[in-house]
Specification:
Elements lengths: L19 H10 L17 H9 L28
Length: 83
């Protein structure tokens, strides 16, 4: 039988770096991530940065469908790893 070939998985790089909590708030409140000044290590947007941007009425809302693209490859866990 011929061996199954798999395409290599490549990660899509995002221009906007944010913590998972900040990403969730940005998506929920529809804030434009480029209008937020990051204060985290390496230029990451932190939760308090997003909350500060929400309190500032001068920030515009994001109208798009997706803010962050996360390509995740899910593999079934063995029973040993589930415990």
């Amino acid at each position: 039988a011929p061996a199954a070939s798999q395409a290599p998985v490549t990660a899509v790089s995002n221009d906007i770096k944010a913590t998972p909590v900040a990403s969730a708030i940005i998506a929920d409140k529809k804030v434009d991530p480029s209008s937020i000044t990051p204060s985290g290590v390496g230029g990451k947007i932190m939760k308090h940065d997003v909350l500060e941007a929400l309190n500032n009425p001068g920030k515009k809302a994001f109208e798009g469908q997706t803010l962050f693209s996360r390509n995740a490859r899910k593999e079934k866990m063995s029973n040993l790893r589930k415990t």
